[in-house]
Predict the 3D structure of the following.
Amino acid sequence: MSRFSKSVFVFALFSASTAAIAFDGYQGVGRQATPAEVKAWDIDVRPDFKGLPKGSGNVERGNELFEEKCASCHGSFGESNEVFTPLAGGTTKDDIKNGRVRGLSSGELPQRTTFTKVATISTVFDYIQRAMPWTAPKSLKPDEVYAILAYLLNLQEIVPADFVLSDKNIGDVQKLLPNRNGMTTDHGLWPGASAKKGGIGNGGVPDVKNVACMKNCKSTVQIGSTLPDYARTAHGELADQYRHFGPVRGTRTLEGDAAKPAAAANPNLELATKSGCMACHGVSNKIVGPGYEEVVTRYRGQTDAEARLIGKVKAGGQGAWGSVPMPPNGHLPDEDIKTLVKWILSGAK
Amino acid sequence: MVDIVKQPGLLRPAPENFLSETQVAAVAAGRRDFLRKSFLAAGAAMAAPMAARAAVEGDSNILNLPEWSTTLGKPVATNPYGMPSKFESQLLRRESPGLARVGGASVSFAPLQGLFGIITPSGLHFERHHQGWQDIDPTRHRLMINGSDDKLLKKAKVYTMDELMRLPSVSRIHFIECGANTGLEWGNVAVPTVQYTHGMLSCSEFTGVPLKTLLEDCGVDYKKARYVLAEGADGSSMTRTIPMEMVESGEVIVAYGQNGEMLRPENGYPLRLVVPGVQGVSWVKWLRRIEVGDQPYATKDEAVHYIDLLPNGLHRQYSSIQECKSVITTPSGGQSLLTQGFYNVSGLAWSGRGRIKQVDVSFDGGINWQTARLEGPIQNKALTRFNINWVWDGKPAILQSRAIDETGYVQPSYGQLRAVRGTKSIYHNNAIQSWKVVESGEVTNVQVL
């Protein structure tokens, strides 16, 4: 063997071992994002307003938009508790001054609303922009988001009725948020660096300390609460929520008819459920909108009932049954709407 | 107790020792009338099985061969994607009535009362959606990684599923628990079964790429970028802030696999974030974007929801870790014991801070405790199954479990938790769960302070 070929052999060995060590990245995997792509998806708005789009909107325009796009779930004044927890209400002028919502600790607040909780106005802008309206998320233009937010701030009596909210003055509004001083990060549930080390929280120190006593740990057992009777049956037949064999049985909680297995499948009811109708309407009971039996009663004897109801389901409506409007359902196939209306008018059986 | 007559296959002999020593002596002395009375008394408790034995030579399921032993079965691939037995129709994901008005922003609970081991079948994994679930075309799905500022990342990048699945992957078993799990019970007992008290809990083997790998591929500047924003591709485009320390540890995974197959659509198909030990809301589903930043983001689900109200009116923000917790699943609320005698009491324990070290079980409402068996392997931030023997004597009992994790943290009582956090916190209720057993064998949900 010549010296030459030997040196080639040594060189080959050397290069193989360095190739195993010197990893040169995941070549061919991923590519640089274009500025337009980043712009299309990077929609978050931070508490320091990084990411906030330029724009403006006034309370009056916000009122119109809210009525059109938001009120069907949130009520005309953001006060509705029918579909989601209320947006507005629950704060006072003093809260705006102090930046702490007193009702949160005094027990006077029947229910927390968005504005009793939120400490950062950026949060509300970001969320409306990314996720609202419910059935058409990301369809609002920045000026529309500003307008809707201006309307909500006016409902909350944070800004006057002639207010124009914009990227220029949103920082001033932040200083008026009723619960702006209402958050703490001094707890042990943040899994990152502690506040002392430039992060959040106390570094993971728990707030509750139990000890693992094993014998005669206490003299009496204090029962704080037991299952209320109504709660025993509120989740249906528990006997059918466990196997019918094994070490235990589900406890039979319903008697008589209610304990019988559900009736045969009802394709119309399934269609109504699938189409989202049953979220707001019961067959016999009002939920947000009227029960179907009430609808039948009201339209009895009217020959154009079917056509009118088809129109209402498609376009939505307000006022006929109370203050919470029915949202438009133009996205449902015409055939489905017709089937549903016929079914409802025939008694929703 | 469940009616013994309805229990299949029971051919019960007279219970042992149903005659006392004195009575046995009486029998031996020839007083047979007494023995007859004793049999009647014993027979009253055992009436049907005794009658059954008298009537037949044995269990008809043994004596008469069943049809599955005497006919031809079905061929392979009859069900190309296999389904549970037709007899397993009871254990389903279920909603809690009245919890939410809109199914797209609701919860379905996993049926913990009937699951074994630690892995949740993918079809029974709990659901929590913020704006409905989507079934995303994986060939059209993209993951973007960018910085809140150009200085935090050398270059923003886009990855397709093809590319993500070419990268080195890891597979790890972790639990996921909604921050609001057991939230219905902060103030008082509200729901009947473990499905509704603890069913926003599941555990799977997840497969994917450590997020660290991707961030380093983009040239992240760890010195400046200390926070990560994860964002979904669904309508809600759910967002949450995650600390960079967790990403650097290598634990945070961009996952596509779940229990050997792709993620289910309800669980984020084709891509979700896995943030071990942290509440489910941070495990962003349908993951489309990761942004690295130099401050937290105060997104809706960390500034309006998923904030913990304290008695002083302050809310805890960015509360994320699921602290050490456990629950007995068999027997549990809404169940009834069949008879007196032996039971394998079984449950689950987990901790967002690491491994489970010990689980103790009490049968007397927390006066005395015994250490349960842990079924291995015991894994980091994963469910751990525990079991303990119990002979039920027919008397009332209160069953509890208390978990301890590797940090030494001991799961607290309701009294201890409420003393610090009040009753309106909604989130992060990890109190000791109590199940009361009464003479009839019925098990119900109670709270021991």
